[in-house]
Amino acid sequence: QDKQGQILDHWEAHFDLTPLKKALQHYEEEYNKKPNKSGADWEMLDKIWIEEVGRAQREVPAHIAQEYCHPERSFYNVVRNNALLKASNPNNLKRQLTFYNWGIFGNDLWFSPGSYSVDSGLGFSFAISRGGWLQLAKSWGREAYIDLTALSAIDEERTRDLKQSLDNLSQPLIVQSPLSL
After folding, report:
1. Among candidate residues 151, 174, 157, 134, the one with its CA nearest the CA of residue 22
2. DSSP state letter for 115
3. What residues contact residue 81 under an 8 Å CB cut-off, 6+ apart?
4. Which residues, given as ranges, of the chain have pLDDT below 70?
5. Is the dihedral of CA 51, 114, 63, 103 positive or negative?
6. At what angle do helices 18-33 and 39-47 cross, to 10 degrees?
7. Which end of the chain, N or C, is more open, meaning fewer C-beta atoms within 10 Å of its C-beta?
């Protein structure tokens, strides 16, 4: 919603994870620059985390949000076992869009009207990390590396899934022999 309360629609033909991956990479690079961080360093990291990572997270499609909200695994599990991403196993595809929001000390919905208002919610007051378990905070340090690695694996696997789907759809449904007269 904009500040006047009007609903804003946003549509894209194809989603690219590059902005989110670049934001996570930027956070990780800045985090690793100094082992002993000052208050100003943490403020800068919080700004990158919320404004770059969080705003990029606002744009993800449902299947990526569902990976962030998966009820039985973190991105750490995905990094250690890419088989958890195989779409051929229905147990890997949990359809949930709820995450634990440490800011409210309770569950929250990824796609909710409040989380997408023009100046609050995801990308304005928080970003989400799944490196360990369901974590949400201003700065989770090295968790960004795990999130980045997992998102790269998810991106590769879903691209393979898309190619396979396109191959499957290009085949005739039923092989028919020509009519003989």
Report:
1. 151
2. G
3. none
4. 1-14, 113-119, 132-141, 175-177, 180-181
5. positive
6. 180
7. C
For the segment 15-35, what is each residue's pLDDT rounded down to a tens digit? 789 999 999 999 999 999 988
List the domain boundaries for the chain. Answer: 18-158
Give me the pLDDT at residue 67, please: 92
**CB 141, CB 31: distance < 8 Å:** yes
Q: What is the DSSP letter of 179?
A: P
pLDDT of residue 138: 43
At residue 4, the 3 state secondary structure works out as coil
Coil/strand/helix, residue 129: strand
Give the length of the chain: 181
Report the C-alpha gap between 149 and 170 in whole angstroms.
32
Q: How far apart are CA 51 and CA 46, in angstroms?
A: 8
Rounded CA separation 174/23 (Å): 46
- In eight-state DSSP terms, residue 53 is I
Q: Is 169 helix (H, G, I), strand (E, B) or coil?
A: helix
Distance CA 37, CA 82 (A): 34
Q: Contact at 8 Å (CB) between 131 and 144?
A: yes
